[in-house]
Amino acid sequence: MSPVPATPQRILLIRPSALGDVCRSAPALASLRAAFPNARIDWLVRDVFADAVRAHPALTGVVEFPRDRLRRWWTPGGIGPARAWLRSLREPRYDAVVDLQGLARSGLFALATRAPVRVGPAGAAEFASLAYTRRVRTNPRTHVVERALEIVRALGAEPVRDVRLYAPADAPHPAPDLARARTSVLAPTSAWPGKRWPAERFAALARRLLDTGAVERVAVVGAAGERGSIGPVLDLCRDDPRAVDLVGRTTVGGLMRAIESAALVVAHDSAAAHLAVGFGRPLVALLGPTDARLAGPFDRLDAVVQRVSENDRLTDRACKDESLGAGLMRRITVDDAFAKALEQLSREPAGASP
């Protein structure tokens, strides 16, 4: 085992994706900065998610991973660019690397830096742990954020549970008029079908929020490729001028701006929920097969609406499989979600941890 440097001066944090996981890795960055105030601390992140972290005051710089450009790395035209990008990871001469992703790809990135100290989870998948000089055993029954903090602790950084996120100053709001109104951001899409609350219930909730005056406007966000799964919500946007369709029309920076100014965020277990935590916004987190204690909105169980019993299986498989997860999501009624929305709206914004 390589010794951990007493005061590393050049640190690379590896957490390329997904967007929600990137957002909830902010406490790991804050912990590293508190422990090493004079160090260079960079973050290796997928290029399309760079806006999620590049304005963070604890960060020195962003190393962008161009996944789409390097997707066909094994082809004759792809080998050269892939090798050149991996070689570029050596140039900063990092003396410590922290891999929070724990997959073969992130392990390769850690190895490519040639840093003398490479820290990562002992239980990393795809043999990624072979790339580490120090393997950290974390408690699988604790929240994913706590597990990340255990990994950075191995580098000598005591946990700082600061979840705050920072929108880039140059990121425009996707609909500036919404920032001036009492707006609820709705995130009804999910790449994992087992996490989806029925779209007709999202539409009914939006109508109730608007018609009762709980909010003045609603803005619907999500990925362009998921529009087909939320027809009733998009119908509402076409029929009611108080509802704005932003699905597929925001950058990551723009999404951050929209959530930063929101009076309320309603989302599944998704990036929007974790962004709401990072900006301290009132939140309704609609969870089905997600174990809220392990992967829900960090330190915001007050925001969770979930109807599960001890016999229900809360697994990634159920999140990915609609036949397993949808039943749990359907237990949540519109009344449940609306009651939680009123509760959250009645409070002062939660505020992110200092």
Protein architecture, described:
There is one protein chain. With 354 residues, this protein is α/β, with parallel strands linked by helices. The protein has 2 domains: 10-153, Rossmann fold (3-Layer(aba) Sandwich); 176-345, Glycogen Phosphorylase B (Rossmann fold, 3-Layer(aba) Sandwich). 34% of the residues lie in helices and 14% in strands. It has helices at 19-23, 26-35, 76-88, 104-112, 144-153, 176-179, 199-211, 231-239, 252-260, 271-278, 292-295, 316-320, 322-330, 334-345, and strands at 10-14, 40-46, 61-65, 96-99, 117-121, 134-136, 183-187, 217-220, 243-245, 264-267, 283-286, 304-305. Strands 3-2-1-4-5-6 form a 6-stranded parallel sheet, with helices on both faces. The protein has a 6-stranded parallel sheet with strand order 9-8-7-10-11-12, with helices on both faces. β7 (183-187), α7 and β8 form a beta-alpha-beta unit. α2 packs parallel to α5 and α7 crosses α14 (334-345). It is globular, with a radius of gyration of 21 Å. The mean pLDDT is 94.
Provide key terms for this protein.
six-stranded parallel β-sheet; Rossmann fold; alpha/beta; 354 residues
Known CATH architecture of the largest domain = 3-Layer(aba) Sandwich
Give the count of helical stretches: 14
Following the backbone from N to C, one meets helices and strands in this order, namely EHHEEHEHEEHHEHEHEHEHEHEHHH
Number of strands: 12
Q: Please write the CATH class name of the largest domain.
A: Alpha Beta
CATH topology of the largest domain: Rossmann fold
Approximate shape: globular
Proportion of residues in extended strands = 5-15%
Mean pLDDT: 94
pLDDT < 50 stretches: none
Helix content: 25-40%
The CATH fourth-level homologous superfamily of the largest domain: Glycogen Phosphorylase B
